[in-house]
Amino acid sequence: MRTKYIIGGIIIIAFTVLAAVSFKSSLTPYVTIAEAKHTSSTVQVKGERLDEGQFDIQKNLFIFHLKDDNGETIEVEYKGAKPGNFDQASHVVCVGRYEKGIFHAKSILVKCPSKYQEEESKV
């Protein structure tokens, strides 16, 4: 009977460790562009889009420029189509990594201005 408790405890501990490792690998920190340039891991960079971007149909590559709160700019390449509401975006969050002078985004999160913001009163 004692062996069942030991095996059960080992299984519970193994699943707890597996869950913790999986959860930690899914965390992606927000960093500035300067910090992204000095790390080889996957990060999130938030900034203001500087242009409409260009889409290369042959390579299926969307390229645009991003400026963070510190005023530093970076070229972003995203393998995929331009997000549908990218043109209305006030800010963009790019998840990916910096390599060879370009930020290679795995995903783009578009931050649009809220349609629920209070309108300025006209007096």
Account of the protein in words:
- This protein has 123 residues and is of the alpha+beta class.
- It has a domain of 83 residues: Nucleic acid-binding proteins (OB fold (Dihydrolipoamide Acetyltransferase, E2P), Beta Barrel).
- Helices cover 24% and strands 37% of the residues.
- It has a 5-stranded mixed beta barrel with strand order 2-4-5-7-6.
- A hairpin with a 5-residue loop joins strand 4 and strand 5.
- The longest helix is centred in the first third of the chain and has 25 residues.
- The termini are far apart.
- The mean pLDDT is 84.
Q: Do you know the CATH topology of the domain at 29-111?
A: OB fold (Dihydrolipoamide Acetyltransferase, E2P)
* Principal-axis shape: elongated
Q: Structural class of the helix and strand makeup?
A: alpha+beta
Main sheet? 5 strands, mixed, barrel
Fraction of helical residues: 10-25%
Structure at a glance:
With 123 residues, this protein is α+β, with helices and mostly antiparallel strands.
